Amino acid sequence: MNRWIAERTKSFDSSGIRKVFDLASQMKNPINLSIGQPDFDVPEPVRAACIDAIQHRKNGYALTQGMPVLRDRIQAQVDRDYGHGDRKVFISSGTSGGLVLAMLSLVNPGDEVIIFEPYFVMYESLVKLAGGVPVLIDTYPDFHIDLNKVAEAITPRTKLILLNSPANPTGYVSSEAEIRGLAELADRHDVALISDEIYRLFCYDDPFVSPAQFNPRTIVIDGFSKSHAMTGWRVGFVHGPDEVIQTMLKLQQYTFVCAPQPAQWAAAAALEVDMSAHVTAYRRKRDMIYDGLADLYETARPGGAFYIFPRVPWGTGTEFVTRAVAENLLVIPGNIFSRQDTHFRISYAADDAVIARGIEVLRRMAGGVRG
């Protein structure tokens, strides 16, 4: 039966994060700092809008490009923000769906894709699924983007660069100089630039900056999963040059078909909800986890998202996380996001009491012996 399995699926393994989620389901009251989804609920007006859409029988297929109630409003906002006459929007089945379609639309077998390490788990696997070759640029220890390294990595086979800021797993927010330089570098070399902006709402120290401000050919992928806790609703959106968007739509017709229609009506309502109180709360959680660990762990202060990525104080990341699990604490080993096994990811998208318990365990473990 093994001969039935397509070779493209053998170049990557199942997500290590999913394995941790499965482990969490078997544990009793774990201190769970592993899950990358907000701990607050979907706002009430958004839930009400979805119920209303269902009750009014908006349950059929949505338009492939997205329902006008949502798509037109996002298009108007994108037009105001960027003023690019060729920049078009469509609604995707989550940001993950947008990433899949982007890779399949842009990457030919053998094309090289530049990814900054550590990276979101999906990136390397999607490049391989499309037949591309991941080119990893090391950003340790502070996760800054070295533009000289990027320039040196570009070859005649380079098709695109993939940026995620604010970043998962590090929480790093690229500076305006880094983003401008990357955007201009991609444009100068005629390399596509994808900007994964799913965490754009969660910027704590400086305003969010998109490379689309400097490179009109940037392809932006965004959505409602993190900003409005709608992880299970699968509503994302993509905007970029019309030719790229039309190609992605053609593929969406034969793959995802559309994003769920009731959820699109709900997402339109989400555009009206002020989420600033949640951002303030997460800024405080960021300070809580950083201040609680920085004296014992080598770690960069995250500027956004809801992750912190400390270096382990002893052993490998895998050994350290194995010990943490024995202490009833769930965090993610860094080798899931990287070739290196030296760090671990904490998600502080959790109740303050859970964060406090996690800090207590991690402080105790900092001086521990490998067990």
Jot down its keywords.
371 residues, alpha/beta, Aspartate Aminotransferase, domain 1, Aspartate Aminotransferase, domain 2, three-stranded antiparallel β-sheet, 12 helices, 12 strands, globular
How would you describe this structure to a colleague?
With 371 residues, this protein is an alpha/beta fold. It folds into two domains: 2-42 and 275-366, Alpha-Beta Complex (Aspartate Aminotransferase, domain 1), CATH 3.90.1150.10; 60-270, Type I PLP-dependent aspartate aminotransferase-like (Major domain) (Aspartate Aminotransferase, domain 2). Helices cover 39% and strands 14% of the residues. It is built from twelve helices and twelve strands. The chain has helices at 16-26, 44-55, 68-82, 94-106, 121-129, 147-153, 176-188, 242-253, 261-270, 276-293, 317-326, 352-366; strands spanning 31-32, 87-92, 112-117, 133-138, 158-164, 192-196, 219-223, 236-241, 307-308, 329-330, 332-333, 344-347. The strands form three sheets. A seven-stranded mixed sheet has the order 2-8-7-6-5-3-4, sandwiched between helices. β5, α7 (176-188) and β6 form a beta-alpha-beta unit. The longest helix is centred in the C-terminal third of the chain and has 18 residues, at 276-293. The chain is globular and about 55 Å long.
Please give the count of helices.
12
Q: What characteristic shape results from the CA principal axes?
A: globular
Q: Which homologous superfamily in CATH is the superfamily of the largest domain?
A: Type I PLP-dependent aspartate aminotransferase-like (Major domain)
Evaluate the radius of gyration: 21 Å
- Domain count: the total is 2
CATH architecture type of the largest domain: 3-Layer(aba) Sandwich
| Strands in their spatial order, largest beta sheet | 2-8-7-6-5-3-4
Mean residue pLDDT: 94
Based on helices, strands and strand pairing, what is the structural class? alpha/beta
CATH class of the largest domain: Alpha Beta
The CATH topology name of the largest domain reads Aspartate Aminotransferase, domain 2
> Which stretches are poorly predicted, pLDDT < 50 over at least 5 residues?
none
Largest beta-sheet characterization: 7 strands, mixed
